[in-house]
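Bug #77: duplicate submission created two jobs. Keeping one. Sequence:
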Amino acid sequence: MGSNSLVCQILGVASILVFVYLSFGDLLSVNYKNDPKLSFVERNGTNFVVDGKVFYVNGWNSYWFMEHAVVDHSRPRIREMLQAATKMGLTVCRTWAFNDGDYNALQVVPGQFDERVFKQARQVGIRLLFSLVNNLQAYGGKTKYVKWAWDEGVGLSASNDSFDPSIRLYFKNYVKTILTRKNTITGVVYRDDPTIFGWELINEPRCITDASGDTLQDWIEEMSSFVKSIHRKHMLTIGLEGFYGPNSPKKDTVNPEFWAADLGADFIRNSAPSTVDFASVHIYPDHW
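Kept job's structure:
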């Protein structure tokens, strides 16, 4: 079963990439060499730097870029957004690098980008922060990984919080496919493309079945180490909401409500591994 699954994944990825090439071949005539020269964004202490100079993030979240890129009538919205962002002085856009098995799925099987997002972003000097999977069910998320494993008979649990070995392997295969994929328009492998500001492991991770946080921490350490084993040019973050865990004295004074300490996440502990380059917090003042 494992061998057949791997063959199906390879054929699926190949089919998607052929479709991308045939659909977007008009962009191959664009001269990539005329695009702005970009260097990788790095971290130096508590600063982001580019070519030794401090780089300030002035950014926004457009999670829908990938979904809109595959539909003719919505595709121009991406360029319009990037051009408007440039005029406003914005520098980084956070967007999904996933759409797992749902409408206009980007990952029917592991993994593919719509490469025009790279091209358009680089032309206007915008960096992209890519989130690799969703904790929530929107756009598939970890629920879809659990379903895939369960349907193939290799899942150990049908729980949305399942982080069993087969699901971890699915995610690793997806991550490796993305990082080592060569952009057919630019000829640049994604892990070598400075248009990418960095990678985000998972959008708003939680594991409510293990409030201690051990399960999620183990997953973060394993997956962040895996990403760094493939390449270290891009920075890596987690995608945390910013809650303090049950063992933190700040859980009673900083968290929005008492429930936030019981979600299996801890801002300090999760951000501590050396494989994590910077931290983030998601703020929803209207809700909290």
